[in-house]
C-alpha cells in the first residue's frame, strides 16, 4: 500500500516536472521566420491611381488581369504593346471612344466620360502588367 503511494507520488512529481520542462522549452523555442518582402519596388503611385480608376469604372466587367472575358486579359494587352507616349495615347483614345479590330470583332464600349488623363493612368497601369 505504502509503496503504491510512493510510486504514485513519484509519478506525479515526474509528470509535474515534465510539464514544467516542456513549458519552458516551448517558451525558449524561438521561431525564426525570414520575412520576404512582398511589396514590389516597381509599383509607383501612378500605377495605383490607374488601378483604382479601373476598379471604379466598368472595365473589370469585360477584362480580367490574366484571363480573357469579353475583352483581352490585361496581361495580354501589356505583352502586345511596348509602352511609349504614342502607344499610351492611342490606347487611352481607344478606351474613351471604344472600338474593335485589334483582338477580334467584339467591340469595346465607349467611355466618353473619362478624361484623357485618367485613361492614360489606366493604360500605364495595364501596360505595367507585362510579363
Ligand atoms: C463592354 C466590354 C468592355 C468594357 C466595359 C471595357 N472593355 Fe476594354 N476591351 C473590350 C474588348 C472587346 C476589347 C478588344 C477590342 C479590339 O479587338 O480591338 C477591349 C480592348 C481593350 C484594350 C486594348 C485595346 C487595343 O486596341 O489593343 C484596352 C487597353 C482596354 N480594353 C482597356 C479598358 C479599360 C481601361 C476599360 C474601362 C474604362 C475597358 N477596357 C472597358 C471590352 C471592354
TrEMBL record:
Segment forming the signal sequence: 1-15
Superkingdom as given in the UniProt entry: Bacteria
Sites where the protein binds heme c: 59, 63, 108
Residue ranges of the region described as Disordered: 21-41
InterPro entries hit by this protein: Cyt_c-like_dom, Cyt_c-like_dom_sf, Cyt_c_ID
Keywords: Electron transport, Heme, Iron, Metal-binding, Signal, Transport
SUPFAM superfamilies to which the protein is assigned, alphabetical: Cytochrome c
Ranges that cross the membrane: none
GO molecular function, one term: electron transfer activity
Protein's name in the database: Cytochrome c
Organism: Mucilaginibacter mallensis
